[in-house]
Amino acid sequence: MTGTSARTVGTRPIRHDGVDKVTGRATFGADVDWPGMLQGRVLRSPHAHARIVSIDTSDAVGLDGVHAVITGTDLPALDEIPRFDANGVNLHDVAENVLARGRVLYHGHAVAAVAADSAAIAEAALALIEVTYEPLPAVLDAPSAMAADAPILHGALRTRGGSDDAPTNVAARTLVERGDVTSAFASADVVVSGSFTTAAVHQGYIEPHAAAARVGEDGQVILWCTTQGPFMVRDTSAAVLGKPTGDLRVIPSEIGGGFGGKTTIYLEPLVVRLAEVARRPVRMVMRRDEVFRATGPAPAASMEARLAATADGRVVAAEARLVFEAGAFAGSPVGAAGMAMFAPYDIDHVRVEGFDVVVNKPKVAAYRAPGAPISAFAAESLLDDLARELGLDPIELRLLNAVDEGDVMAHGVKYEAIGLRETLRVARDSPRYREPLGPGQGRGVASGYWSNAGLQSTATMNISADGSAVIVTGTPDIGGSRASLAMMAAEELGIDVHRVRPVLGDTQTIGFNDQTGGSRVTYATGMAVVEAARKVIEQLRGRAAIVWGVETEEVIWEDGHASLGSAAGEHRTLSLEEIARDAGSTGGPLSATVSLDAKGAGPGFATHICDVEVDEDLGSVRILRYLAVQDAGRAIHPGYVEGQMQGGAAQGIGWALNEEYLWDEDGQMDNPGFLDYRIPVASDLPAIATEIVEVPNPHHPYGVRGVGEVGIVPPLAAVANAIRDAVGVRPTQLPISPPRLRALIEGR
Amino acid sequence: MATVEIPQDLREMAAGRAVVEVSAPHLLAALGELDRHHPGIAQSLRQGRSVVVDGTMHPRVTAVPLEPSSVVSFVASVAGG
What we know:
The complex is a heterodimer of chains A (748) and B (81). Helices cover 28% and strands 25% of the residues of chain A. Chain A has 748 residues and is α+β, with helices and mostly antiparallel strands. In chain A, strand 9 and strand 10 form a beta hairpin. The longest helix of chain A has 28 residues, at 521-548. Chain A is globular. The N and C termini of chain A lie far apart (59 Å). Chain B is built from 2 helices and 5 strands, in the order ββααβββ. Chain B starts with a strand and ends in a 5-residue tail after the last strand. The A-B interface holds A 84, 86-88, 159-163, 172-176, 203, 259-260, 263, 331, 333-336, 338-339, 354, 366-370, 408, 411-414, 451-455, 515, 517-520, 597, 599, 708-709 and B 7-9, 43, 46-49, 52, 55-60, 62, 71, 73, 75-81.
């Protein structure tokens, strides 16, 4: 920090984007309207798996008001685009997912798209497109897909990490292994084990996917969309379209929720191609049912796991087998789930084998801490069983086994400063942990880990003539990060936070940024903002030195002023406003840009306590009390950190109790809307209490570590453990819906 | 010579070896050196994997400095949400 003490960091100012959002002025993905704009719609597959024999678009093309109809043949063939991008993303899979080529791989797979004068005309045109399908056998769950005689989705697919060269639906086998698990289990005093399943769940973002494009006569494309990564959209869409990346300018809208669900592309290449064909701007907005049927949920999973411990509670070995459904294309987060599963604990012998399995369902997408909540559900349930078996307090058991700085995870990564132990102590010492429980009530505890990310960010700071500052970044604000970035800038400059305007740039107005994801923005983009501010402060000191005719080194910067002390005791100051006003006379604009590849994102840990009341007749669960404790490193804006913690808890409670993609026997989703897919609403939840722990991350100038994801890791198990406490029997299948809980109670 | 641990599924590309010694100033150069001896392995090592160098995870291959005692391993990549 520049000043002697923080005056902005750690406070709770109103977010800069708040007024526009609560007054309805913010422009989201569907809000753009350009002259002559057409409306685009997508025709989707009615089969979970089929060969496309033919597509006849002639009647649709001939309908009045229709300006463009495209199918897979209107995009470059797969062999015309690179197979992988620089980050290892399989571009062939992405291209095939946005528009089918010769086959459909899930119910809802995009087959054709239309642009017309109105959405109604576009819908009518879709009905005129004649697609002849040859239905193929579908595989709708991982066990079926792994069977020896299973229909194969991709003939060329081989198991990465496997040794067999035969066609398969197992896209990858991952392995985290340390020590001698077999011997450790054989000699342990206590072993607990279980089989667990979780359902596919939606990220729950309210804003549907939306995109609009217009194409200039020179071929330059402006692509407006709701996304967590405008540069990802630019690069991936350009590859799928066979265009130079420089021809696409991607402008990110405000985003109405992402949570990982907006880290890939769906509509973007289609809307560009439609705009090119129609020679008119086009907008596409998914209906809610399309969001459910055709975009990526978090994966369904099945897990077998066991823990071995000494009689005094020291966990000596952990083993698990994880099977994750990837959807129609490879890429579930099973590898991350395996690494995160036992990460909170110092265990000498670990073996976690994971399988990434393709099935005829939508390709899964990221969802906060991808994979970790699922594997933590199994691991933390077993910790709870172990505590019961040994007669130990569940928090004391976790403290006994908690990782510390210097410990090494099973996959070889060494911990630096971390705050798991602190979260456990705060939870243990909370009065909430000692609240009396009544009949039918139970208490559950769980902890969680998430690695967090750094990655590439760019930030520009410009000082205006009135002494206010503008910071331009390229990481969409999905959780209040604009406020935290502005606060760090204000702290550095020593000015009021509302004299800093945080602005989101587009792919042609700011340098490259990786996506918003991995809880990385306040950490990595924040580092870029702080460094840019410090460069500007160097300029400000230099300008004051010019005015005073002294060396820059003699000028100090504090509280928004340059100041100079003299031997005679005279003290001179120049405010930021004064220096900015005369910048044209002292060297020109005050501006700095910093691009960096941030390392050292410290992992996040959280511990949650959940109290429930179970109605055994109905099988219903009421959350009585909930406490989330989390290490934030340093909470720049504690209110928004608490918001992240509460949001993670609420989503995790939904994952545990209610949420589930339901499929019929043909692979069609039965509940593609928020009436039938039930996320928790305010009346379902108590106030989520929060306690922020601050163990500074030494790699960030303010000690920040990401806070956006780890809060969703513990709740699944915390809720399940509370129900176990209340009813005396272990829930192993999520969601713990009333029918499942009734069956569990009846089988007690 | 830094030690590079080859993932099991790529050992065939590395003449069956589980561990390869590489003399390189940084990770990027090490992969280049590996690829010179085992063509195609660098691309395969990047796909769907993160890299761990001396206990620190790196989401992508960059010019991370290597010491003669350095140990490099590859793990499943992690996507953020």
